[in-house]
Amino acid sequence: xxxxxxxxxxxxxxxxxxxxxxxxxxxxxxxxxxxxxxxxxxxxxxxxxxxxxxxxxxxxxxxxxxxxxxxxxxxxxxxxxxxxxxxxxxxxxxxxxxxxxxxxxxxxxxxxxxxxxxxxxxxxxxxxxxxxxxxxxxxxxxxxxxxxxxxxxxxxxxxxxxxxxxxxxxxxxxxxxxxxxxxxxxxxxxxxxxxxxxxxxxxxxxxxxxxxxxxxxxxxxxxxxxxxxxxxxxxxxxxxxxxxxxxxxxxxxxxxxxxxxxxxxxxxxxxxxxxxxxxxxxxxxxxxxxxxxxxxxxxxxxxxxxxxxxxxxxxxxxxxxxxxxxxxxxxxxxxxxxxxxxxxxxxxxxxxxxxxxxxxxxxxxxxxxxxxxxxxxxxxxxxxxxxxxxxxxxxxxxxxxxxxxxxxxxxxxxxxxxxxxxxxxxxxxxxxxxxxxxxxxxxxxxxxxxxxxxxxxxxxxxxxxxxxxxxxxxxxxxxxxxxxxxxxxxxxxxxxxxxxxxxxxxxxxxxxxxxxxxxxxxxxxxxxxxxxxxxxxxxxxxxxxxxxxxxxxxxxxxxxxxxxxxxxxxxxxxxx
Length: 576
What we know:
CATH superfamily of the domain at 498-574: Immunoglobulins
Strand content: 35-45%
Largest sheet: 5 strands, mixed
Mean pLDDT: 91
Strand order of the largest sheet: 44-51-50-46-47
CATH topology of the domain at 498-574: Immunoglobulin-like
């Protein structure tokens, strides 16, 4: 039995003695059950962490469930569901073709239109897979037969990096000798190419974090940020409260914050859900335990800067009977109103979980109480992170409850009255790149603009999917799509990456002038020759003047801006 199951059993035993209490809920929100899991044969069942929900190019929502017993082969299932609640089974895990069951991960969408996920695999170590929108599955089988060195039991889906590869974590495996408190190992961070070539880039060692449950998140700096449920030291004391970390695509790992730094773990402990980077550049998340509650320390919502300064935004279970919620398993989503939304598995007016809102400054409000009483079977115990569809509505699912007779969860919508918007599959790119945009009413689009610069080339592939070529002169900012129904704006900024197209002359000695040509050089903060820094002047968005620096060696020229680092295709030759 894995650590996730043990935690759920312990929580159920403790919270069974708690009684319900009333709480005021903000008016004008609409909660609607769209689908009851278990209604038909082969249905997905019991959606649980991490269970990430992703919007596809077709505007539908995609995810997976890992419960052994769900799907046609009793090994879990991948599914899609329309915003109105029509569910389609895409794949049943544990089939005769040999794919492993137990897909707790949910899915993330890649720039190729395919969905990536993982399977725990029961006693077989787990697996990484990708799936088309029609359900055609490719199993990579890169974790089996490796003596756990490549990690086992991946519980979250990988996410795509700026280099086109996918990055993820495993809950266990790795170097077992570095994880003395857990015989199964502390887990790893891996990189896998779109074709399935896997490389472990970091192995957790207990001291610096252990057993991550959550997916990584790609930061605007091109690095990945995440949480580990266990591990971590404060000073030289092993606290085992979990950590927040940063890892580069090359595998350089840094602990940004170790939970239980404060006495009594008032800063939180044991993060299950992942992080989300807010529009302010900070990261936001939750922990399952810890906090300042004098009743039961059942978690916090927090903000942490990229440098690792943590602020607790809210401690759960501070009210009688935890009517303000208890134990957030999922992470947070920042909606287009600028606020963050999340769920708690327990607590609330009915002790069956809540949906809450927390502002970047920490103002906390319960916006929905789950209840699954007779005659109002609305679901209970939500574990999965909410997602905001481009129609403006929040969507999620619960692990239990519903009217199917089996009471094995529901898929629901929660309408806060937020307006439709557009989102980008990849929110970064260079001039000339083709960017994918998701939304509604896009077939009739008349214009696309990148921070005020019009895109001269764009294609409305469907009503929910549009592509646009990043125009010359684009600067970092919001993207807008103009339709007959109005102008739709992205929920985050598009980050313009620089590109080095050429340099002249191709060789020279120390001190010689060099002109670098390219795109998006405005705001450049570093130029290097073979890794050696040079002084420079940005003449325009497409030109930099510099000189060969002292100590320079033959190698690539690189230009770094706030949008990333561009590398020349050829070497600059340093002559004597």
